[in-house]
Amino acid sequence: MGVFANTDAPATGHEQVVFCQDKHSGLKAIIGIYSTALGPALGGTRFYPYATEEDALHDVLDLSRGMAYKNALADLDLGGGKAVIWGDPEQIKSEALLRAYGRFVQSLGGRYYTACDVGTYVQDMDVIARETRYVTGRSVEHGGAGDSSILTAWGVFQGMRAAAEHLWGSPTLSGRRVGVAGLGKVGKHLTAHLLADGAAVVATDVNERAVDWVRSNHPEVDLVQDATALVAADIDVYAPCALGGALNDDTVPALRAKIVAGAANNQLAHPGIEKLLAERGVLYAPDYVVNAGGVIQVADEIEGFNFERAKLRATRIFDTTRQILRLADAEGVPPAVAADRLAERRMAEVGRLRTIRLS
Ligand SMILES: NC(=O)c1ccc[n+]([C@@H]2O[C@H](COP(=O)([O-])OP(=O)(O)OC[C@H]3O[C@@H](n4cnc5c(N)ncnc54)[C@H](O)[C@@H]3O)[C@@H](O)[C@H]2O)c1
């Protein structure tokens, strides 16, 4: 294990990056801790067949930084971290590998809490938990929060309501047409909230089973061929709920919606897209602000999971989004920039309190 604690790493600003290897089980993992200013770093473990170690490192540095900002704005007493396991989960995932990984997490003594991400599931967290107590996102049988998409969708809905209030004066989607791209775990729940609120929903998914589910459960939803057709459709709100990079140089100029609020991570394809959105008069509710319901749900496990308490906290995504949109107006910057500023402010102001000695 190579530990490069407190490197000055000017390019990334991370507190700690840990390389973990267990040759017998084939484990190769990197744990990135961006900041513990607000508390232990929390973020999931991505198990993915990266082409190179550099790609894995790049991803963990990016993702762990993103978690610090997300957790800061979710009002959690948690810093930001993330881990990647390098390899094909279909080929190499095993009890020994997961437990070896768990021991590395435990060796950090609580500076990092792990959870699920792409390629890891609640059952994997239960295995990891046999070696470490610093793990969330566990199965319900083990006191876990279960499916985090429930509160992710609830939080996205709250963020969307706040954007609607900011733009149209009333915190409701009633009478609006909302385009949902991706009818997976989050997209399905979000569709139900929108319909209950009186919105019309138009949606798309590449997966025929997901489309069939909507056809049978919500026949009132209009379906379009693909995300390109959805972006060009006559919609008031666009909710990207599939993959990252949904807002790019092709989609933004074609977008007819006046609000973007969705669950997908990393919606802005590259820096500068936030300005393009603002220039086109599109109000963008930053992805990491509105999709924080999932991390709120799993973070609640640290206290002993209570769904109502977690839901209350996810409901406050409405207030946070509203605050960010107002700050963006006041400071004359896009909402994505305002969100970053607010997160950095909390990390600096609350993180600074640790310099006050307690004894
Ligand atoms: N689940 C959570 O708690 C959570 C939390 C935060 C962020 N997110 C993000 O939200 C997004 C959705 O998460 P999820 O858990 O619902 O995932 P999911 O895999 O259950 O659903 C994604 C859906 O998008 C569809 N899809 C993929 N490519 C598409 C395309 N080009 N056009 C249309 N549909 C497409 C898939 O077929 C799938 O049905 C992801 O980006 C995820 O990272 C999820």
From TrEMBL:
CDD domains (UniProt xref): NAD_bind_Leu_Phe_Val_DH (cd01075)
Protein keywords: NAD, Oxidoreductase
SUPFAM superfamilies: Aminoacid dehydrogenase-like, N-terminal domain, NAD(P)-binding Rossmann-fold domains
SMART domains: ELFV_dehydrog
Pfam family, one: ELFV_dehydrog_N
Gene Ontology MF term list: oxidoreductase activity
EC number, UniProt record: 1.4.1.-
Every Glutamate/phenylalanine/leucine/valine/L-tryptophan dehydrogenase C-terminal domain range: 146-355
Record PANTHER family: LEUCINE DEHYDROGENASE, VALINE DEHYDROGENASE
Similarity comment text for this entry: Belongs to the Glu/Leu/Phe/Val dehydrogenases family.
Protein name as it appears in the record: Glu/Leu/Phe/Val dehydrogenase
